Input
Amino acid sequence: MSMQIKAAVLYEPHQPFVIETVTLDPPQTGEVLVKITASGVCHSDYHLVSGATRHPMPVIAGHEGAGVVEAVGPEVTGIQPGDHVTLNWAPACGNCFYCQHEQPNLCDTFTGPIWAGTMLDGTTRLHRLDGSPIYAYCGLATFAEYAVIPQESCVVIRRDVPLNVAALVGCAVATGVGAAMYTTHVRPGDSVAIFGCGGVGLNIIQGAALCGAGTIIAVDTNPAKMPIARQFGASHTILAEDDSEVTLNAIRDLTGGRGVEHAFEAVGVPAIQELAFAAARPGGSVIFAGLSAMGTATNLPGAIITRQEKTIRGSYYGTVNARRDFPLFIDLYLAGKLKLDELISQEYRLEEINTAYDTLLTGATARGVIVFR
Output
């Protein structure tokens, strides 16, 4: 039987989220009903508002969440009511080409339904009170009191970790720490530069520190980000200048005139991606971890790529294996090796979601979290 829940619904780009009552169908085969306890305020969801990401609407956004399992549908295995779960927005089927090639973050079984905002069967579990469909962003829709999601999106975690912290593991932590640990394999003593010190960028910083990087340079346009970046492990901070050569020269001054081994771009802006490319030393790597607007293009000089043997890599979800890495990240947090409490700058009620995004856009916070009491 369907239940009524409160959710933040986006009806069209360039409009605010609307808090209203919607209906949620019970879990079907292979699906799980989760009571959402916390959902991170991530810039990727705002791309729906800005129109940078195109998606069927109306939509319930939210893709960085954690909660408690309320019920399971038929043929669900390894998950039971009462389990604490961190939610995975890139679920893996375990059987497709990419899963078989140890790239579960690229699983193509779920790609179509996720971008269509539906479940695997092509239908939605969310509806307006008149019965019309509401779509789920990233197959999760965590800006709501409850969510019905595929079992593959649920990662069962230990119960001694706060769920507001566990929510961040499902996106910012996995994307950032994973980019340093798995996408490019930062090694002890390496030099790195991180362009953009939001939630993902801060986790790249602490991921690089965890890997033993020697010189960790945080670059941002917001002075407020500088002390936060140092708190997360940056050895140097650079306030980006309008003249990119000034910024590049500052990076080269810290790296013997060469540039860094690994340059990470965590914003998704072509001009900053090009700046990161220029900051990498010959033989170095450039990692794009930020989500660019659909339809944008980045101009990278082929001659320099060849002559300087620079490697450009995309990092999708930090190249993580969620079932392996989410529990690992939580263990590292509880061992005092990952800063997750410090990521949470402010908590909000669902009704404050538009305020939360207004604050995010100022760049003054590390991560906001919506909590459900």
